[in-house]
Fold these 2 entries.
Entry 1:
Amino acid sequence: MTAFRSLSAAMIKGFLRDKMTLFFVFLFPLMFLVVFGLLLGDSGSDKTKIAAVGDGPVLTTLEQTGAIELEKHGDVASARQKVDDGDLPAAVVVSGDRVELIYAASDQVAAGTVLGIVSGVVDKINLGAANVAPRFTLETKSVEDASLKPIQYLTPGILSWAISISGVFGAALTMVSWRKKQVLRRIRLAPVSTTTVLTSRVLVSIGTAVAQGVAFVAVALLPVFGLKLTGQWYLALPLLVLGTTAFFAVGMLVGAFCKTEEAASGAANIIIMPMAFLSGTFFPVENAPPWLQTVSNVFPLRHMNDGMLDVLVRGKGVEALLVPSAVLIAFTLVVGFIAARIFRWED
Amino acid sequence: MTGARIPAVVVADIRKSYGELKAVDGVSFTVAEGEFFGILGPNGAGKTTTLEIVEGLRKPDGGQVTLLGEQPWPRNPKLLPRIGVQLQASSFFEKLTAREQLQTFGSLYGVSRRKADEMLELVGLTDKADVQENKLSGGQRQRLSIACALVHDPDLVFLDEPTAALDPQARRNLWDVLRAIQARGKTIVYTTHYLDEAEILCDRVAIMDRGRILAMDAPATLVRGLDAPTHVVLQKGLLTREAARGITGVDDAQEDEVSLTISTRKPAPVLSALAERGTLDGLQVRTATLEDVFLDLTGREYRA
Ligand SMILES: Nc1ncnc2c1ncn2[C@@H]1O[C@H](COP(=O)(O)OP(=O)(O)OP(=O)(O)O)[C@@H](O)[C@H]1O
Ligand SMILES: [Mg+2]
């Protein structure tokens, strides 16, 4: 068994036997995914529900628009009651050729939407009934726009965040505990190169990141959450690796500065928490004020997030990897270099 | 194969200060190949600092160290497979069992995994093979730490207080292990607080205090050079203090609650005189030990 393999094995065993680490690496971020996924799950569907009385082509066409959901009522009074109570923004009553729309004055936006859709449908049916060929034709085309259903941005965001946790904490805590427990000094006395020790640790972190990716995507794909991956999701793999090395470098820096595990955990949290919020983990970064978006560019997580969103759910190709990868590599090199310079074998 | 051999360890005038404190203040010694060398001294004497400089873990402020013909500082990968080190504070990978610790450390030296069980057997931890390191007792951890230092069969072994925290049985077992290693031609340098142990195990000892070596020789030679009296201890009541002082050859006699202690530099005639008086029951003879050497050198009682 080579030193490389047995060191990796030793670290994997240590990792799997530490319930606390397992919790923070897998369950903790998954909890966020589940909670946010369920909480925000419906806000993406913007069908407006209105009360409807009667039947006929107007109501069928209204339903076909896909923008309106009808709640059938037997009589006008109960439909009207719904609007009066504020439960529904409007009620449409069809009796023969007469279409009556009752709407609540309080919600102007909803009222406008419903009014527009209903009058559009009525006009269209009128035209058809009058046998007049329309002079203008409207062609529509749907495009993938920047706004996504919550699960679509939550999955890449929380996955990147989780990888930043495992990368930073993994590197920092291993380094501090190995230094404190004199394992570093003992390794220094063995004929094994520092490159071997370092690469085996990085490899364990990359393996962890891949495991996190599989676990999180699998959960998000469940029907309750309804994540839809694009065809080129595998392009996320290089980002996973590069993100891990970048966060590993940050962890090395933290580990080089801190003497105790407690100090290292604290420092890692102080770095990760603001970074996660500003990098679009829990909400799309486009919703933040412009200056904050600019600030967030200093975080590797921001770039990892952008890249993950592009390849996992926005359906972009290899070209979307260029900028995030370049930033992550540069970050790894610069931070890793500084960490190597201030590295200490012992206290 | 004699004479031409290079010494295993050559230490020349090493020094190390921590601020004002001279932790090691001009230490020199040579250890021959196959020798069992002990470094003795009270807490803070500078034993660990000396050992760590010799192992190449610390850079000395001054002086030279040569191990098996090589310089240990800066980190010398050619030398590392040939030396085995047990640090004073045990160093283990987290959450690994005793066997896994040995396998992992062994693999750093390219040792096969099977060796682990052999080493566990050697230090009497076979039944603890699958116990995680943090669940071992202090003495068991100590034994595991020694096994980890020996797993790659080094030519030169450095052990920092290997017998601290061991129960008497484990201590004796470890003595056997160390003697067996020496019998295979390996060189051992170790530190200890136990003067009696050093007397039994070591070919030569260096007695350190306050960063300096006070004396260095074979334990027997050091003791002989001391010209210290032999103590004969009798049960109290068999003989009065005055009667004891009257025996020819007795230098002094002291009494406490349970015993009468006679000091003499001519033990043979004193013992026959005691035999004539029929007072040999429960008699003990205590010759000078390293403890007395230490007392003599430092003017202080030796407290480990
Ligand atoms: N890293 C350090 N920084 C400052 N002082 C130190 C350091 N290491 C050791 N010392 C000091 O150097 C002196 C010698 O320490 P050392 O550990 O060599 O003693 P020792 O003989 O091994 O003692 P012990 O029997 O307790 O193990 C002590 O006074 C100690 O406080
Ligand atoms: Mg010491």
Entry 2:
Amino acid sequence: MAKGTVKIVVERCKACGFCVEFCPTKVLALSPAFNSKGYHPPHMVNPEKCSGCDLCGMYCPDFAIFGYKVGEKPAQKEAVHES
Amino acid sequence: MSEVDFECAECTNPVEPFLRSERMPHIWCPGCGIGTTVNCFTRALIDSKANLEKLVVVSGIGCTGRVAGYLKLDSFHTTHGRAIPFATGLKLANPKLTVVVYAGDGDLSAIGGNHLIHAARRNIDLKVICVNNLIYGMTGGQTAPTTPEHATTSTNPYGTFEPGFNLPHLVDAAGAVYVARWTTFHVRQVARSMQEAFKKKGFSFIEIISPCPTLYQRRNKMGDGLDAMKYYKQASKVKNGAPTGEVGLTKTGEIAVGKFVDRDRPDYRELMVHRFHESLGDEYVETGELVCS
Ligand code: SF4
Ligand code: SF4
Ligand code: SF4
């Protein structure tokens, strides 16, 4: 079973291909489908190989994709309040 | 394994809470590297558990200048070239702030070139993130001080003939305490360098070579953003500690990356406070924070 998976905000994608190219296990490919701006967003072609490493999320210049390990929440911004 | 939550409704992109979502999608072109540097920056903030109440991002003008407007942090978008002077004032008035200057090569090294040199010389405690796309992006692809020789630009249609700045060398010579260069291909290394810079006291400078497919790559027949990223991957060579005089960039040659400088020397405020105590004795009262009332 896959250790991780991704979430994609299709409408934000500009089809640069960074996530596809630099995914270490080649999980992604640009899909033939279009978003409303006419770009081809990525989809998972080898979902079982996803480790949830979030390299796709680090690369995506449009904040359209991120990866996470199944059963683990990605580290998030903590609200810091001065006492 | 039915208990495994594949969907994870509450899992969100780590960058999301840092964005002014209402301003998305941003204006950066497809394959532009600036957004990638923003990912690195937000991951570095998360991992270093930075106190976001005490952090300010200051930008100048240009494509990279938009960063200050897109980040949901205390931020200020200054006039062209003036990110460093504004940030200097902030830091001196409120020494507890972590002040990040997030700007492009044109803003930092041309219009704001003098400020860059003198902030490094004075060792003002600023974290300068310089996204270097080797050209003026927003204004139409003119030659910048960083454009490598032979590159074609809108103002040098027969190829640039003036020598470009080697920014790590410039800020090293002026006295920066931390100098690193990476490309947008090196996402983890960029995030790590940012974390190191957050910890450093004094003038820190991180140069990130980044694609501008619309103006630099296209005019030079160097493909799109992805082609630039592949070139960075293939042409980069990690040279930690390399003498900065040897890390100048050429149009298609090797890109020396790594941490070039990491040293310590007293910063501007430290020297100032020391001198005032020395000269004025008890008459001198240190101001910790200026508050508007
Ligand atoms: S999380 Fe990692 S393995 Fe999964 S698609 Fe993204 S880059 Fe590939
Ligand atoms: S990196 Fe982002 S913008 Fe580029 S193709 Fe992947 S999802 Fe789309
Ligand atoms: S003009 Fe260049 S630097 Fe500016 S957003 Fe487009 S690709 Fe990025």
